């Protein structure tokens, strides 16, 4: 089960995936960590773990299709079967989508379809919702719109700061994402 992780940021979900692999609860190999941000902290995390890493700056390509063609080549040359988005802050375009139908998944820090897009936690706090959560979904051509695979809810209390909510969300994410990936792989391998 060869997977690629696409990430633009800190990489705590990348770490959770790697830990699950090390512990034997996720039967997969991360063949590639791809990032679109040269200074993303996730890159160093991947290098420390000896995960093959590519950093592609979209600005150095003529257009999105050219950028994605390069990204796709990096996946295909490593026989990547699944693309796991973990804090990847860019829409996946048709070049990559068409090459990996129903094989790209994302994790989002809200109970979708509520609070799509950026700063989902901030959006939830602004609305003063009492329950929020985490969603894992297939990626389609929209922003956080694809079919939902799994969700987990959590409560927000009145005196929770944004940092506290983020910590709660991430604790859920780090359990949920590796588990959902394992379930998907198992199902697909049984076909
Ligand atoms: C996570 O909260 C995820 O839900 C969202 O971006 C964040 C990435 O965090 N899509 P990290 O880089 O994995 O720490």
From TrEMBL:
N(1)-(5-phospho-beta-D-ribosyl)glycinamide binds at residues 11-13. Keywords: Purine biosynthesis, Transferase. The active site is at residue 108. It catalyses: N(1)-(5-phospho-beta-D-ribosyl)glycinamide + (6R)-10-formyltetrahydrofolate = N(2)-formyl-N(1)-(5-phospho-beta-D-ribosyl)glycinamide + (6S)-5,6,7,8-tetrahydrofolate + H(+). (6R)-10-formyltetrahydrofolate binds at residues 64, 89-92, 106. Residues 2-181 form the Formyl transferase N-terminal domain. The record marks 144 as: Raises pKa of active site His. The keyword Ribonucleoprotein does not apply. Catalyzes the transfer of a formyl group from 10-formyltetrahydrofolate to 5-phospho-ribosyl-glycinamide (GAR), producing 5-phospho-ribosyl-N-formylglycinamide (FGAR) and tetrahydrofolate. HAMAP family: PurN. This is Phosphoribosylglycinamide formyltransferase. It comes from Halobacillus seohaensis. The gene is purN.
